[in-house]
Amino acid sequence: MKKKTILMKVCMIYDSLSIERGGGISNVIYNIVHSTRDRVDYTLLARYGSEDLAIARKIYENIPVILIRSNNSLSKYAEYSRQSKLLRTFDVLHYHKYPFGYDLPLFLKIRNRRSPTLVYTHHFIRQSINCYFDNFLMRSYFQNWMKITIRSWRKITAPSKRILEELRKLSVSKGKLVRITNGVDTERFAKASPMELEGLPSILFVGHLEHHKGIDILLKAFKSLQRENKKSFLHLVGSGRANQRYFQLARRLKLSKRIRFWGQVSSDVMPHIYKGSDIFVLPSRYDASPVVLFEALAAGIPIVTTNICGEEIIKDGRNGFLIPSRANQLYEAIRILADDQNLRNAMARNNRRDSLNYDWSKVAKQYVELYDACLSDG
Length: 378
What we know:
By secondary structure, the chain is an alpha/beta fold. Helices cover 46% and strands 16% of the residues. The protein is globular, with a radius of gyration of 22 Å. 42% of the residues are buried.
């Protein structure tokens, strides 16, 4: 009789499991889980509203999900705290958000125990934290809390060199840090057929419509492009707190007829949109390791992005352009690509080839190896 393999038990912890609502981090969790579920017994702990529940149950079929669904702040603290007994049964707790809010009592209960092993992925750069905590006192409190508790983690992973360097400044020991880049499901993009999009060229942005993503810079650059190329069209996919501001800016720049605000789009549809576009643009003022850049690679689209977020995966002039986050230089990079079909084709080929280095089948197994190493070390 064949002996049953006992899989290690890992609990992933984050706010939202919906890829559409949770953004790049939820995308990362989804792909780690689905790429390695034959080697790991996963459970997911998250808090989200009823509208997310059906989505999570669909995309995480046959994977246990622990839901923190209370709307009352005090009861949320109690809900997280009550889960401590269950979470001690896991081999590894993998946090994708630093415990600082409702989950803080739970973290305090388990952080000094030998089991389970605590792993944390730091998805953020310093500017993102400063933006999230716009109150100076809260920001200082959070940064000091990180310094105090950073030793609690067995391993801390970082998806980019920039994040790795910022963690080192917190005096995290070198042996505790591991760089594991983000990835992409290349097969999913290879199978997708292009959606017919308006524009010659059709220019695509995907992400939260927030100030740090540089949407205002993109709109001003697109205004310059429109003066000499009336057939160009801009597609903005995503939503955010600044939606209305950018609607109004597009109206003031008299671009409303040449821009489509898509809002949130199903993850099933996104590969078709990517593959139907001619140029992908991400003019972030600051960013960590955006999953959308990996997706644009896999879709085979020339990429224009800023050197602050694309420097590790984009080779300037080979598969896109790296620029400062300024409208005139963004316009110039887009114009060069818009005018040169041969250059776009060459970059597209390079991107499809380069994306294979970041396929989730290669990237996700590094997390399993990390879990194994943590447990082997005791």
